[in-house]
Amino acid sequence: MERISSTPKMLTQINQSESTNDSDIDERGHLISLNENEEIVIEPLKQNPYEVSYTCLLLPKFGSHHLMGDVVERLQSSLKDITVSFGWHLDFLSIKPDYLQWTIRVPLSTSTTYAIQVIRKQTSSEIFLDFPRFKRENQSDDFWAPGYLIFWGSQPHPNEIIQRYIRQTRRQQGIRMDD
Asked: Please, what's the largest Cα pairwise distance for the chain?
């Protein structure tokens, strides 16, 4: 989080009757007033050393359920809302017709399994609610195929690995794919 460093004389409590812009108020409700010779020092945002990053990939349960159009917009919004709600950081998001891939940073105390379960459950609920055509075919509560592909770190999965994972998952589901 960016922090404004200043001397105490630069901050004054806002009176209800004073007219100010939101940009002149810090997060504690103090008015920021600068003299010409005073500067605001903004500290850079740094990654918490007690966080872990990983990149995850999910496939729709049905190969015919492509992630396109409004579904992409819904997933983008949903992933952003989920990560903000849980205090996680969404660093990368890629939505292709055949898969959803994202990179998040979570506290070490948040298990990978938990984070993925939350994302699977929330996105499944929203997709089925907003796009009932998917629910008509998929009678389970999970829009996503069993399992997930995960890489530790923030690098997206290489395309060859993604394609092998898709073939393997479909084979395990009993769906034949042309190699």
From this structure: 71
CA distance 12 to 24: 11
Tens-digit pLDDT profile for residues 134-157: 999 999 999 999 999 999 999 899
Architecture of the domain spanning 51-172 = 2-Layer Sandwich (3.30)
**pTM of the prediction?**
0.71
Interhelix angle 70-86/112-130, rounded to 10 degrees, is 140
Is residue 91 classed exposed, middle or buried when 0-12, 13-18 and 19+ CB atoms within 10 A define those classes?
Answer: middle
Distance of alpha carbon 119 from alpha carbon 27, whole angstroms: 30
Residue 56 and residue 148 in contact, taking contact as beta carbons nearer than 8 Å: yes
For the chain, give every domain's residue range.
Answer: 4-42, 51-172
Q: What is the helix (H) or strand (E) element at residue 112, kind and residue range? A: helix 112-130
Residue 67's Cα: distance from chain center in Å? Answer: 17
Give the C-alpha separation, 149 to 112, whole Å. 12
- At 175 the pLDDT is 81
Whether 99 and 170 have beta carbons less than 8 Å apart is answered as no
| CA dihedral angle for residue 99, residue 100, residue 102, residue 108, rounded to 10 degrees | -100
